[in-house]
């Protein structure tokens, strides 16, 4: 099956995809802030530039897009691999997953606790809140 878009249009679409301030990330930030926690964004001095950093707690949260980071959660439809150009996409997504694991490992070795929230997990806000509170501990409010 070939791509329905021209190479130029596909390139424009791909260039428009953001690496930060994505919809799932904004949802997580809104929930975390609403719970009373305060955080820093994308600290460049930490491996992988975590999406949310809770410095005094030594905890970080990554918000991963299911497609780009290869979500393996059961029932996640956003993580389906493209059927075309598999020679590009499979190594690309596998490389992203390997890099994510390296960053998480480096953070843990440095004494940080890491939570990964998948795009598909941002749909159920009540479950998301419970998971965040469980990870971060006592509410800040």
Describe this structure in words.
- By secondary structure, the chain is α+β, with helices and mostly antiparallel strands.
- Helix content is 43%, strand content 12%.
- The chain is built from five helices and four strands.
- A four-stranded mixed sheet has the order 1-2-3-4, with helices on both faces.
- A hairpin with a 4-residue loop joins β2 and β3.
- The chain is globular and about 50 Å long.
Note the main attributes of this structure.
141 residues, single chain, 43% helix, 5 helices
Topology summary:
Layout: H1 7-15, H2 23-34, E1 40-41, E2 52-54, E3 59-64, H3 66-69, H4 86-109, E4 113-118, H5 125-136
Number of strands: 4
Question: What is the SS-derived class?
Answer: alpha+beta
Q: What's the overall average pLDDT, rounded?
A: 89
Distance between the termini: 53 Å
**What is the assembly state of the chains in this entry?**
single chain
If strands are numbered along the chain, what order do they take across the biggest sheet?
1-2-3-4
Order of helices and strands: HHEEEHHEH
Helix content: 40-55%
Shape descriptor: globular
Separate helix tally = 5
| Percent of residues in β-strands | 5-15%
Q: What's the story with the biggest beta sheet?
A: 4 strands, mixed
Radius of gyration: 17 Å
Unreliable sequence segments: none
Task: Briefly say what this structure is.
This protein has 141 residues and is an alpha+beta fold. The chain has five helices and four strands; from the N terminus they run H-H-E-E-E-H-H-E-H.
């Amino acid at each position: 099956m070939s791509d329905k878009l021209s190479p130029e249009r596909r390139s424009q679409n791909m260039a428009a995809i953001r690496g930060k301030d994505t919809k799932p990330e904004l949802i997580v930030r809104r929930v975390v802030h609403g719970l009373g926690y305060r955080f820093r964004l994308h600290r460049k001095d930490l491996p992988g530039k975590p999406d949310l950093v809770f410095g005094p707690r030594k905890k970080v949260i990554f918000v991963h897009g299911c497609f780009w980071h290869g979500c393996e959660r059961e029932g996640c439809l956003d993580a389906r691999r493209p059927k075309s150009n598999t020679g590009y996409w499979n190594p690309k997504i596998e490389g992203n997953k390997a890099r994510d694991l390296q960053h998480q490992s480096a953070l843990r070795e440095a004494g940080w606790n890491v939570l990964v929230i998948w795009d598909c997990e941002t749909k159920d806000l009540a479950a998301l809140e419970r998971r965040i509170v469980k990870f971060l501990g006592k509410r800040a409010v």
